[in-house]
């Protein structure tokens, strides 16, 4: 038993470390791409943000033994802090609008390979390690030749995928079950698809790209929508309300019974579908940016918000019915007949059955019950 516990603890620590290393690696790739686009090495200072994630890793391993926290994931939050500035810089870069041919880069790449080969030959490393370094350099050069919009879109896509996979790999804390985790991951998949559609459909328009203030506004809404990923409230707030809550009023009963549903509705209204709908309406009405995809997703956001509002009304009506039905059910339990089953406790059933025994026809066991002919 102790050996099995030790293996489980080791697996938890391994998953915690691997997931955080994946976060750091992806953020470093984004920083490298910013330095390549901007042609300035000072942007490598963005990599210092990973120190926060390293500190969080040390604290989690020491105090939580690699396991998660209640209601929030600090690792995912710090990962977003690490990579968001890089994606902002890439989206705001003016040359990020089009994929244009760049014939001068292959020559630069070949010259760099020649310099590396001369360095390896001078150190006697032409075989083994030298071949590996040459292949790695060629792979990096090929990645560098990919145009900027493709790179930025790839970083957006991998960001959402790593968020989902990372949340799956992160060890489960003491307040969330595997069933709740699976439900949370399904929510993240739908959320990630909607967020990716929002960024690709709005930022690809030329009218938007030529307006830096509009690009900044869209990125602010996108950043705001990403803050829902570190939170687990949508699946951890499902509480079992005691019967005494009904006596405290409608609002307390409503918040107690449907806290998880209210959180999901709030996410839709104030973090995702609501802001997305406002941005799309502004683009269509004020900036005259109209296409069939933009109209479709605007209608989709409106429909989702309408369905959530319908859900909210249904929850309110259900709570009112529960509040009104509680005293009536107690009265019905007192005066219930054979066609109206009462809601009394088992002890009350025993008492009523004992009182009803004299009224029932007792079995005939003596000769005095019937006259002898």
TrEMBL record:
Keyword Transmembrane helix: yes
Polar residues bias locations: 327-347, 359-373
Keywords: Membrane, Transmembrane, Transmembrane helix
Positions of transmembrane segments: 12-35, 41-59, 71-90, 250-271, 277-299
Region annotation Disordered: where it falls in the sequence: 326-373
Protein name: Transmembrane protein 26
